[in-house]
From TrEMBL:
InterPro entries in UniProt: 7TM_GPCR_serpentine_rcpt_Srx (IPR019430), GPCR_Rhodpsn_7TM (IPR017452)
A Pfam family the protein falls into: 7TM_GPCR_Srx
Protein name: Protein CBR-SRX-90
Keyword Cell division: no
Amino acid sequence: MEEEFNYTNPLNLVVAMLIITIGVLGIIYNASIVYIYLKENSEKTAFNLICFCRAISNVIILTIIFVITFFPKTLLGHSPYPPVVESWIINIANTLYLGNEYQIVLVALNRCCALFFPMKYSKIFSILHTTIVLIAIYVYRIGKKIIEWIPQSNKGCHALYSIKNLAWSYDDSEQCDFVDDALDIIFYTFIAMSILNTITFVKILHFYRKRNANQDKETKKRMRKNTIHFLQTMLQDSLYLIDLTFTFRLSSWSDHRVWRYVSGTFIWELLHSTDGFVMVMFNERLSFIKKTIQNSSTIPVIAGPKNLRRGTISASTIPSTK
């Protein structure tokens, strides 16, 4: 009897439960970032705008790929959509993924600019300028993908999720000649990101080695906040490095179904879910990080000689270079 790959298969059932669990949690994390950005005026900064767009991409990818495509197909043993629709869903997700790769460089440039040009930062990385760059990134990626995929789709060539391998792949038929520039994009964005992050890290080290009592408190708080943002970007960047390592290096270690799922689907989904979790942990409105900053940034406020009193000013009340 031929083995069926659906809910009757133990591995398919376990994978389906993992996909829906990780997917829903990731959507909640990323949706929280989207909600806070839209609700709170204090969140309207260039850095948070990039995180906002990144969170939207994550929500879309987790929803259309994992929750409504991979999950039902893994559980039922067949796709709820025609091959052409499933293929376009996968390609939309890949397009947004590469858009996030561009954002990695944009975030690195943002942090570098905030540290080296604090007085000009708000003009260089204004909301308008950042919005234009982000729109340009996605318009370019979406337009490029449409131009590449229409001819392939017309030939019946698709990218489909395999219920046996538990990962997606391109059609390897003779008439299909897919052109995927993902590796080139990843290579160049990695180089740019590494250079910018190294420069930023050196600047941070220099500040903490040279700091002294004469430095004003506002400068110290601004640097502390920028350092926290830099740590956030490093953690998020490391997620993509892990994903790329599994996808392009470690995936060839074995053809076993479990390893194909881990290297091709599990790590990819975990990337977008954990990405949202990291943003939640570092968001001042959602996590303990805000309290940590405030508690470590207490400044005595002294009034006139007659009405002497003491109070505190939190880091959130002090202008930053965000």
